Amino acid sequence: KINGIAAGEKEWRLVREVLAAVPGVREVISDVRFLGPEKCPALDVFTPLLHDTGNGPAISFARPDATFYRGEKLMLTVTAPDRASFLYVDYYYINKGQLWVVHMLPRPRQKPEWIAANTRLSLGQGGEWQVGPPFGSDLITTLSVLEPLNLGNRPEVEPAAPYLAALQKEL
Fold first, then answer.
1. What is the pLDDT of residues 80-113, one digit of tens each?
2. Whole-angstrom Cα distance, residue 12 to residue 8?
3. I want to staple 75 with a disulfide (CB 3.0 to 4.6 A). Which of 6, 25, 62, 101 is the partner?
4. Which of 3-12, 56-65, 111-120 has the least mean pLDDT?
5. What is the mean predicted confidence (pLDDT) over 28-47?
6. Which residue from 117, 54, 57, 120 is spatially nearest to 83, judged by alpha carbons?
7. Which pLDDT tens digit goes with each residue over 124-165?
8. What angle do CA 139, 141, 144 make, to 5 degrees?
9. Residue 87 is inside which H or E element, if any?
10. Is 51 exposed, middle or buried (0-12, 13-18, 19+ CB in 10 A)?
11. pTM (predicted TM-score)
């Protein structure tokens, strides 16, 4: 069994063929999600951080299936990891072929806050983010760090490329 994220069906089909050709493999069972190649720059920054097997931050949504519809409020709960830390939550989406990021936590012009272990934070209850076009599978990332990141003053929404470059430099 294999799980993870792939850019698309074509890429996953190639990986599946290679796995199926391994001697002794009778069946490839998968739980792979497709995010599209446009979101790969964000994944490139976060993938090296996934080696930490500790209890990282967790996200839960107001809707159990994490599917939202036009006009609904995007509401989520972030649970801090089992150690106090600074939390960063970002929402990535594609618009006209370009990757954009919405900074959900900390909010613009807000300094990162030291969050106690296992604290639950509700985001979006005030209607800050409403679901609208363009529709599709988007990406929300959480990052827990022991020192605040020096990312400069960022707008609430911006093209993802300059933010990801600044983030990668800090990590």
1. 999 999 999 999 988 888 889 999 999 888 889 8
2. 6
3. 62
4. 3-12
5. 66
6. 117
7. 988 888 888 877 778 888 889 999 999 988 999 999 999 999
8. 175
9. strand 85-95
10. exposed
11. 0.77
Polymer length in residues for the chain: 171
Tell me whether residue 90 is exposed, middle or buried, using C-beta atoms within 10 angstroms of its C-beta: 0 to 12, 13 to 18, 19 or more.
buried
Spell out the residues 6+ positions from residue 162 whose beta carbon is closer than 8 angstroms to its own: none
Token pair in block for residue 17? 């063929």
How deeply is 16 buried, as exposed, middle or buried, from its count of CB atoms within 10 A (0-12, 13-18, 19+)?
middle
CA–CA separation, 76 vs 120, rounded Å?
10
Cα torsion angle, 42, 47, 116, 63, sign: positive
Q: Which amino acid is at 6?
A: A
SS3 24: coil
pLDDT at residue 20 tops 80: no
Measured CA distances, 132 to 9, 24, 39, 129, 136 (Å) = 26, 47, 19, 9, 10
Copy the structure tokens of residue 132: 């609208």
Instruction: Round to whole Å and give the CA distance between 101 and 55.
Output: 25
If DSSP codes are grouped into helix, strand and coil, which group holds residue 18? helix
